[in-house]
Amino acid sequence: MTFGTRYVAALAERGRLCVGIDPHASLLLDWGLDDTVAGLERFALSVVEAVAPYCSLVKPQSAFYERFGSAGVAVLERVIAESRDAGALVLLDVKRGDIGSTSQAYADAYLDPRSPLAADAVTVSPFLGFGSLTPFVDTARAHDAGLFVLAATSNKEGPEIQQAVTTDEFGRRTVSNTVLDHLRVLNDGADPLGSFGAVVGATIGGDRGLELAFNGPILAPGYGEQGGTAADIVRIFGAAAPHVAASSSRGVLRAGPDAERMRDAVRRANDELAGLTA
Ligand SMILES: O=c1ccn([C@@H]2O[C@H](COP(=O)(O)O)[C@@H](O)[C@H]2O)c(=O)[nH]1
Prior knowledge:
The protein has helices at 3-14, 25-30, 37-51, 63-66, 69-85, 100-111, 134-142, 159-162, 175-186, 230-237, 250-253, 259-273, and strands at 17-21, 57-60, 89-96, 121-124, 146-152, 165-168, 171-174, 196-200, 218-221, 244-248. The protein is α/β, with parallel strands linked by helices. The strands form two sheets. The chain has an eight-stranded parallel barrel, surrounded by seven helices. Strands 6-7 form a two-stranded antiparallel sheet. Helix 3 crosses helix 12 (259-273). The ligand O=c1ccn([C@@H]2O[C@H](COP(=O)(O)O)[C@@H](O)[C@H]2O)c(=O)[nH]1 binds next to strand 10 and helix 11.
């Protein structure tokens, strides 16, 4: 079954919140844990046990595991495997992108089921040119996996690059809309939804003129801690709102280490996000 089909089913069954599993050093300390591999493991696997059976997607942020070297990456492998066993889709947030031949190695690492780091989907950066992502696209297709391509990120620095105007095969477009155009082509004809998604922050302001009818999933990070709200999701995404998974990491993790409090945070967010339309 394609990633797009699994995504639609997961959101319908378990709600529209994607829980970020980001073991910040400050959160480990707040939870009474040491900033060590043992603390990382306890934190991350407690989050998986508390929320992965109840939410549609989890999004571990690779950086927080990589900072502990190979032992941290081993914890990330367990987070991926145990979250999938609990029925959540795993979106690995690594924001990779390089020349094509190196992109192939990244794609094999994160999307080929023979890899211990294989996830359902991965975040990628198109800023070496969308064509440099072709190995990710082909590998995702081969393994029914998905991609989320950075289009309009949640941070305030994004517009200087993403709102730049470029002339390409689609005409005169912002960089964000060039990315969305490529996604529309990749997702053409897919039903109920294609597997090639976009990252569009739940915090972006103003009218960016984003063309969001690209028939793919949308990840909206910035919901919660960064200030994005359900009203922002309606404002930013309009008719595309039903395809949005809003992502929150610290907003859920601060409710820990109590498992029931974390699950409550997930329930409340899912209730708030249910049925959002323009
Ligand atoms: O545009 C983007 C893309 C990715 N992120 C990532 O999402 C989480 C946000 O964490 P919060 O604690 O909910 O703020 C983090 O892993 C970022 O790297 C993003 O924020 N914006």
